[in-house]
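Quick one, tokens below. Sequence please?
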């Protein structure tokens, strides 16, 4: 059984990694658009 703090820490790190993945894919889309314009 996880303690509540461990569970919260896991949830936070999971959402943080999900957020960074989103940022990375948005950055990639922006780069693609730059290439298309040039």
């Amino acid at each position: 059984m996880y303690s509540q703090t461990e569970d919260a820490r896991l949830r936070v790190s999971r959402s943080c990694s999900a957020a960074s993945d989103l940022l990375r894919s948005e950055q990639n889309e922006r780069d693609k658009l730059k290439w298309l314009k040039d």
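The chain has one domain: 1-38. The first helix runs from residue 4 to 37.
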